[in-house]
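Ticket #4471: structure export looks truncated?
Reporter: QA, pipeline team
Priority: medium

Steps to reproduce: submit the single chain below to the structure queue and open the exported record.
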Amino acid sequence: MLKKVQGAERVEFSPKARRNLKTIIDLGLEELAVCIAKNQKSLSDNPALLGRPTGFTLTVREIEIATGAGFLIPITGDMMRMPGVPAHPASENITVNLEGNISGLV
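Actual output as written to the record:
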């Protein structure tokens, strides 16, 4: 399916993704719908391949099981799951004094 829908020539599964596949099969969840986590600029896992490229290798690094939602989520390439989260959150600089005054908001 990843080849047909995504346009990939090949699909490579990391060792972790292969273990995830085994777990999915062992649990009988292989019929769940698939929602692919990929980069936002392309159907590939390569941000330099814009739009709907063809003939590329899609790398699946892991597969998350979301049984509550009824999905299997292949996570491709180096995609960040929560983009924009800084190493040091702004909340570390925010304080509230005893009078309720807030400081450290930028």
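Status: closed, not a bug. The export was complete when the record was re-opened. Leaving a note from the reviewer for reference: The radius of gyration is 19 Å.
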